[in-house]
Amino acid sequence: MVLQQSAATILTQGSRPDSPAGDTPSWQGRLELHYDWQEGATRIGHSQAQAPLKLQRPFYPEGPAVCHTVMLHTAGGIVGGDRLVVTIQLAPQAQALVTTPAASKIYRSNGREAQQAIHLKLAAQTRLEWFPQEAIIFNQALYRQTLRVDLAPTAEWLGWEIHRFGRTARGEAFVAGDWRSHTEVWQGDRPLWLDRQWLPGDPTRLHSPHGLAGFPVIGTFAWVGPVVTPELVATARHLWSGTRGEGGVTRLPLGLVCRYRGHSSTEARQWFTAVWQMIRQTSWQRPVCLPRVWS
């Protein structure tokens, strides 16, 4: 299935391996994207998708320089035993924004761990904005995600992740299961930011001040690559105006990190979007252009 005429694209069928009786079949999905820079435009030079992962046709709502890309998960959610691998590469000067069309769902496990591995490789003078929508972690889910970003000098990565633990609208809490997230950002052999998070499903940890402190939503926003001034960090803190949670900003040697813990994924995204807008306007001289799938 050709997703873009200018790209060499292959879509293969995902595999559901045989599983013991009573087990839910699992997906072994892959997505590879290579962005090129040609004559002032970012294009997808190569893509390959294996179900349940799929790629929508790219959009250019702010001109040819920035390619807006939507990743799809056609199975509706992630179950125990799933193995998903995403690899994205940007050639020098390419600029891309990658998002998802809706919240992800991590279902309760059948006893096996679900895993997702993401590897982002950014060449010199590239910018990648990585903005997946909220992930809902069901009670009894077993899930592990690894995200590695390799930055060349002068490359910049902007990304966020927002997680809701339990289907709180149904009164569900994450009191059983296991969630792990491991993020690494490297520049050559130099680590710029290493972040490990672990939340076992346990009522004690849900209410501990060192855990969720009674809040079901956490979020992280990171901008890594450039030198960030103390004034910019102060502005990011000033933009926090939430009433249903807690927010904090940390300056990195090359970048900054915003943390959210609260009751509302909307509140987290509103703050993160305000910081994103500030970064675009002050550092990139470009206004925020919200992906059309968010509306």
Explain what this protein looks like in three dimensions.
- The protein is built from three helices and 18 strands.
- With 295 residues, the protein is mainly beta.
- It has a domain at 27-216.
- The strands form two sheets. Strands 4, 5, 7, 8, 10, 11, 13, 16, 17 and 18 form a ten-stranded mixed β-sheet that branches. An eight-stranded mixed β-sheet has the order 1-3-2-6-9-12-14-15, with no helix packed on it.
- A hairpin with a 2-residue loop joins strand 14 (178-187) and strand 15.
- The chain is globular and about 55 Å long.
- Mean pLDDT is 91; it is low at 1-22.
Question: What characteristics describe this protein?
Answer:
12% helix; ten-stranded mixed sheet; globular; mainly beta; 295 residues; 3 helices
The pLDDT mean sits at 91
Largest sheet: 10 strands, mixed
Helix percent reads 10-25%
Give the percentage of residues in beta strands. over 45%
Tell me the number of strands.
Answer: 18
Low-confidence stretches: 1-22
Estimated structural class? mainly beta
C-alpha termini separation: 27 Å
Radius of gyration: 19 Å
